[in-house]
């Protein structure tokens, strides 16, 4: 392997070239404990997990050298790098001379990002028609697994295209045109990606709303984007429970009409597994049964060719003000970026079977259930019984020398245990899933999982203990983990391991993806060199970046570009170690300043979770008359463990021992559960209000996965 001295060090490579000296196969680094992929379990003492020589030889990016070669070009010649990749897709007309145009500095005028402007394409065509023309017509595109075991379906790429064209033709028939918005409020049925692709085919802008949001939240989104149609189904099963989605849509349409936004068409799919049509409330003239109209339309539909900078979708994400932000992604750059990140971050091979357990109501479901995989011609598994993403919750039943099999992983899902807790592993075995992008449940050993090749984890920083459990138990210490960092706004992975390319450090997102220039700045916006902690920003644009907040470009600039002019501000804190590895430390509004010490909430939470009786923890800052801010910890205990003063002291001592006395929580608040969004993100805004006893300022809690948790926390506030 080449010495790092042979590599020309440029400013943008200063924090990635350090990894070039690390061996890609067997061996140890001095002063570090290491384990090799497939040869041993990763223990709490292991700092590094190396890819095996065999895995690296077969990987798309087999070495640090190859990564550095590609990364260097992506930064020094982004136009050439991304043009070459974009050329692998179909363009009706090639883009203009300038591959990209950007201004990220509000001091120089309006923020603007454009990629492949003037290029004419269509993402649906590239997902389906292009793959069919390449000989994949009969390849399975989608395996669908119902909530109820034993019920499944599948579509080849050819069959999927036919279904998409029928719906696209219907939408055109009711007057949906290029640029019109369509709200999609569907569970994880085949009809969900079909609808997304049908909208894209005719140039309509889809806005998927997770089928679990309240009618009030749905109404907000309807009012904001003023859709030509709402597409839903009558009901869905979550485990044994039936949820009447049509009732929620009806209520939302009543609310939106009060705000002056009426919708003329509500296309409703009859999900017979959950509810019969005779039991569905109906408004004649507005409501249309999918099965009564869509199958009557032709199975071919002309493509609406769009500019690369024409909008593809709106996806609403929570804002600090409580008003949802309509993140707008455009077509060309998003297409190229999601396809490329999927390919390399998961080391995708044409023989892989891929399953991402995210719902299409979230950005993960857009980029890594639908578009990214299909652009690569992948076989994709959809599961109706939606699983959401694990954060950093791992329980230790005993002391640190406990055997790995007695670790218990905690995962927050809608239906993880129906009809039994190992359901997801049954699905892995049934479809011989090779790439699994999720976070796991407890009951692992009952299934073989031998097909698994690569694991992926997304969300808040996964702590090292959770990472090791995922690696050792789920992947049998033979599957690399793509522990990715990215956001709704970024469109795709930003900092991510590339399987086979370099050693992984449990809990680290490792290095930037091609074309991404992460920088860590201090409070004044000055870039910090070397080993450090600070605010994570991104210098220069990348193709997958969102272009604006729908109807509110001023908020777009104020939120993301004004804090540190010239940079995209992620809102996250980050540490970079001496080897250049990146460690996400949580949202910077979750950084607590205690007597001058800046402490990331994730750091304190990881310390609490390492306690053998702590299942999960969430930490917020509260006003403190002496220290400025105090540390307030919400703690969920291992099942069967009771609250006690002795345990409270033990938890505080654990933090003192691991971090220092300055980080010791001032308050331990016992928490049966934590307020989370449907995607598993902890709503710390609500926790801060509870901690500061501002109970009249909690805001809308109906969009939480479990709204009742808030009342439980309030009741336990003084315990």
TrEMBL record:
PROSITE patterns: AMP_BINDING (PS00455). It comes from the Eukaryota. Its EC number is 6.2.1.1. GO terms for molecular function: acetate-CoA ligase activity; ATP binding. This is acetate--CoA ligase. Keywords: ATP-binding, Ligase, Nucleotide-binding. Residues 603-681 form the AMP-binding enzyme C-terminal domain.
